[in-house]
Prior knowledge:
Layout: H1 15-28, E1 34-35, H2 47-56, H3 72-86, E2 96-99, H4 102-113, E3 119-124, H5 128-136, E4 140-145, H6 156-160, E5 167-172, H7 185-198, E6 201-205, E7 229-234, E8 247-250, H8 253-263, H9 272-282, H10 287-309, E9 313-314, E10 322-326, H11 334-345, E11 347-348, E12 350-351, E13 362-366, H12 371-382
Parallel strand pairs: 1-11, 3-4, 3-5, 5-6, 6-7
Antiparallel strand pairs: 2-8, 7-8, 9-10, 10-13, 12-13
Amino acid sequence: MIKTAKRLETIEEYYFSTKLREVRQLQSEGKLIINMGIGSPDLAPHSSVIKAIQAAVIEENAHQYQSYQGLPELRNGMAHFYQKHFQVALNPTTEILPLMGSKEGIMHISLAFLNEGDQVLIPNPGYPTYSSVTKLVGAKPVFYDLQEDSNWEPDFEALEKLDLSKVKLMWVSYPHMPTGATGSLTLFKKLITFARKHQILLINDNPYSFVLNDNPISILQIEGAKEIAIELNSLSKTFNMAGWRIGWVSGKVEFIEAILKVKSNMDSGMFYGIQKGAIAALQLDNSWFVELNKVYASRRALIFELAEQLHCTFDRKSVGLFVWAKLPDGVESSEQFIDDILYNKHIFITPGTIFGSQGEGYVRFSLCVTAEKIKEAIERFHSTKDNR
């Protein structure tokens, strides 16, 4: 019997990996499942992006190994994007590293900076991968609670009371996933001050800035941020390119060089065509975001209606690709709540508990489902007929 590595004992299979098998099983039984759980954009990239990758595949050298650092014009595009939308100046040669999705970056950053026994501050609720990757590299998660009445922002007084002597990294994510809290430059200033005081590398995971958000911000806008912070970004949600797996990390040269040491031993460069498509996406003007957000706004209005059908409450000012909703009083388990809906109404919604203990009592709806499907879900709660 070949035993697996002990590190696998510290984590479980990703929730959506296991739950979607259950959903597929129901579908195979003829159940018409409406999937409101996954944040995978169902809309297509811009036509110019599709044309760019189509043209790229017949170019000379398109199918060879590519640079670990990506095409110079891709890094230039990312630098221009940050200058245009955040007024942040980045050196495309030394301060930007393209990634095969920002999720990859979470692993690369952790491998680059964490030793066994180091501690990592992780938001609760927050993206589950922060915790699983921390455990995989032998470090220890230290969860800091976020509360609805504090707009899902850290309690700095509580953080200061912790023993921070072993803390090496701190993960933040604003706009926040899963709650949709926007964050602010004021919050970023507090985070930079806190991180600098305790010599903690601060990472802002920032893939939702342009979804239903009129005020995109970057932690790198804060004076002195580059000395203590880096930022992940992604084309997945911003440009409907989730399956393309392309993102990037930005920060000062010393941080980027450390991450590159890991990345260059993990892959052999990003496919040329994908890079060309990304370059085209980064050149799109603001009309792209306006039209995209019209679709999401109409869907969100319907999700609000559905949430009200379930007697949930929610923040209409939240941003991003999801609606985070508080379950009615008396509901003891969000996982039982969503399972009842899955098996009785054939609608899959994400339980808040997968994002941490502070997610108990909440559910998350994805906007990556058509308006027609959302209307059908609403109708299923109006109707008493069997929806098998």
